[in-house]
Amino acid sequence: MEVHHLSYPHHLFENENEDAYSLAIGFFDGIHRGHQAVIQDALTVGKELQIKTAVMTFDPHPSLVLGKSKEQVFYITPMEQKIEVLKGLNVDTLFVVRFTSDFAKLTPVQFIDSFIKKANVKHVTAGFDFTFGAFGKGTMKEMEQLAGGEYTVSVVDKQMLTGDKISSTRIREELKTGNMEQVKELLGRPFMLSGVVIHGDKRGRTIDFPTANVQPMEGQFIPSTGVYAVKIQVQENWYEGVCNVGYKPTFNNPEDKKLSIEVHIIDFDQSIYGEEVIVHWYSRIRSEQKFNGIDALKEQIGKDKLVAVNYFQINE
User: Which of 52, 59, 280, 296 measures 20 to 30 Å from 123, CA to CA?
Assistant: First the structure.
């Protein structure tokens, strides 16, 4: 998959692209099943027209530029992950448009001229609620009206699961409660967190449950505190594990609010400091809790490990 970074007014298409595209357009945080329906429509049309399929997304999140969020935005799929997921969907080209204050001022007509027509887009697919141009005034109806015969348009209706719309907002709410089974249903795959194994306090080794202390990719959404059944990819191999997200209250001062993500990898005994790993989240086992001593903690971790092993035996 080719990846092109675009910005306005610089680094745009100087001349019309030689390649024609069927384009799926949206922010696509999570690339959940609703987003996949949009991308699949673009792929289908691309195949029918015998042209390439592209996805256009934006970076950073518009709320950061438009002043709607004063806090850091945490992504379900940071850009590196988004690229990997799109590769798996057989997309030919990804256009990453830099969302800036200048870009946000574009009228719908200017956006279409600069980012649709000059890109040699022959078909545009988006979700029913996609808007574009200054103040989000451009709708998909307007996208079609401004085509001038140069491209066609299709709009994908909202996708539903258990009576509610599949959305990035809904996924974030489920992540906040640790409902990883529901997150998996909404995404169409397990929630994924990428990071690097760093040195921790190494206390796990002293209680016979060594852990990999994972420092997550910056800007990545982290699920609710608790203990989870997970799988972790280390050097291209996948292992089952138990992950604790929290503040380690058994050992730490309650005022210490440094969050840690620690994975006990089952049947694994290697030094992996500095390794990039991927954690797939499957099921929340329990809440994080404070124990009265090391023995009680060890006993509970042993139980958590059995729960994780049984989970994967039943669900594999």
Answer: 59
* Contact between 200 and 260 (Cβ < 8 Å): yes
Q: Are 134 and 170 members of one domain?
A: no
The DSSP code for 114 is I
Tens digit of pLDDT for each residue in 259-309?
899 999 999 988 899 999 999 999 999 998 877 777 888 888 999 999 999
Residues 88 and 169 in one domain: no
CA distance 276 to 217: 10
Q: Is the pLDDT of residue 132 over 70?
A: yes
Please report the pLDDT score of residue 191 as a whole number.
Answer: 98
C-alpha span between 285 and 302 (Å, rounded): 12
Tokens, residue 222: 């982290």
CATH number at residue 296: 2.40.30.30
| Strands, E assignment, the chain | 2-6, 21-25, 52-59, 93-98, 121-127, 152-156, 160-161, 164-165, 191-198, 212-216, 226-234, 237-246, 260-265, 276-286
Element (H, E) at 218: none
The model carries a pTM of 0.91
